[in-house]
Amino acid sequence: MTASNSVTSPTPAHQQSHGVDQSQINEPSLAAQSATNPATVAALIANLTANHGFETSQIKTDAESLAHWGKDWTKHFAPAPSVIVFPKSTEQVQSVVKLANEYGIVITPSGGRTGLSAGAVASHGEIVLSLDKMNKIGEFFPADRMVEIEAGVITEQLQQFAEDKGLYYPVDFASAGSSQIGGNIGTNAGGIKVIRYGMTRNWVLGLTVVTGKGDILQLNRGMIKNATGYDLRHLFIGAEGTLGIVTKAQIKLERAPQDLTVMVFGMDKFEHVMHVLSAFQSQIDLTAFEFFDDVAIEKLMATGHVQEPFEARTKYYALLEFEAPYEPIMDKAMAMFEQCMETGWIVDGVMSQNLSQAAELWKLREYISETISVFTPYKNDVSVLISYVPEFIRDIESVVNSNYPDFEICWFGHIGDGNLHLNILKPENLSKDEFFEKCQSVNDLVFATVQKYGGSVSAEHGVGMTKKPYLNYTRSESEIEYLKALKQVFDPNAIMNRGKIFDV
Length: 504
Prior knowledge:
Largest sheet: 7 strands, antiparallel
CATH class of the domain at 137-255: Alpha Beta
Strand content: 15-25%
Radius of gyration: 23 Å
Shape: globular
C-alpha cells in the first residue's frame, strides 16, 4: 500500500460555466405570459421601491441579469424571468411574496443556482427572488453547538465558520464554494459524508420561512426536544421552494473529525466493492465510502490533473475515509485491508499518510464530474437500498447496453448510502439534441428499474422540472395527492416555484 504525490488542480466546479440548451425551451403558459406584462412588472417594482424599502440596486431587469439569475446548472430550459429582486431581510421577502399574490406573478427562489434538476430555473416570466444579499452569519450558541444564519450563506462559508469555532459542518459536495444553505435546505442536499453524518435535514434545528401566503413562521426555534405536534420544519426541507421561502436557519454543528485517513482500493468485480464496504463497516465507523468505475478513471487520467492510483487499472474503485486518532483503529483498518486482499476482493490499494495526501486521493472522486462534463453526459441521480445495489447496477447496465450499445456508461456515487450517479456519455457522431432525445426515450426503462427495487428517481438533486415526469416511479398517486394538498395549504394561489416537483 502506497501514498500519492501532489498534482495540479483543475478549475473548481463552481467556477465552470454552464450553458443553456436553446433547443429545449418551453413555451410560456397563458398565465405566465400575462404575468410578464411590462406594465404589471413596472407596477410591482414601483410598489417595492415606494412602499417596502427596496433600493434600485435590489432590483434588476436587464437581459444579462435575467439570464444569469434565471438559470441553474441544468441545460434543459432557457431562462426567461421578468425581474430579479434581492431582499435584505425576512420582512422584505414577505413584501415580495404578498405583492406576487396581489399581482398574480409566480416566484422562483434562487440560491447559488448549482442545482441539477432545473428547480431554480425561471423560464416563464417569474420573479426571481435571490437570497444573495441575505448572507449573514448571526448568533452562535456554544452550549448548543448551533449557529443562526441567513439562507444566502455559502456552504463553504458555514464550513469555515464552524472550523474557526473548533467545530465542523459535515454536509459537503463539489459545489460547496457556491451553493447556498437555503438551496441546500430546499433540496435536502447530501454529498460525500452522508454515510456518517446524514443529509442536510439532520443539521437543521430550526427555520424561519415565509409561506406562499406571505406568513412568517418560526419553526422549532433551534430546539432538540420539542414535542408539540407537527414539525412543519421538515415539510420545508426538500420542498424546493414550492411551499415558501426559507430566510433563516438554525444549524447544528459537530465536533471536528480527527486524523482523517483515506484509502483507495482497486477491484475487479462490483460485488467485491460491496463486500469491502460491509467488512470495513463491521470494524470501523466510516465517514465516507465512494465508488467509481474504470471509465471514470480513464477520463480522469487523460486530463493529467490526477495521479494514477495503481500501476495496473482495475474495473472498479472504492474510496473510503475514517477517523484514526488512535493506533488501534489504524491496526483494525490494516488488518481488514490484508484480509480483503487475501480473500481476493481487493486487487490493489493506496493509503494516505497525512492530510495533504488524503486531499490528493479525494481528487480521484471529486474531479470526475467536471472531467466528464466535456462529454455532455446525460445524468441520472438515483438511489436504492444498499442491499439491492449490485443487482440494480446489473439491471441498469443491461437496459442501457441493450438499447444503446454504442453509448459509454460512467458510474460513480455515494455507494455507502445507496446513491448512484449514472452518466451516459455522448458519442462524437451525435448532436446534443439527438443524444438527449435518445437518452430520454430510455428513461422510462431506467426508472422502471428504480421502481422495481423501491428506489428513488432523485437521491439528492431534487425533482425540479427534469425529474417531474418521473415522480410517479417513486411516489404513489395517493402520496402525490397529499403533496399537492400540502402545497394548497401553504401556497393557495400557487405562486411559489410553480411547475416544480409536480404541476398544479
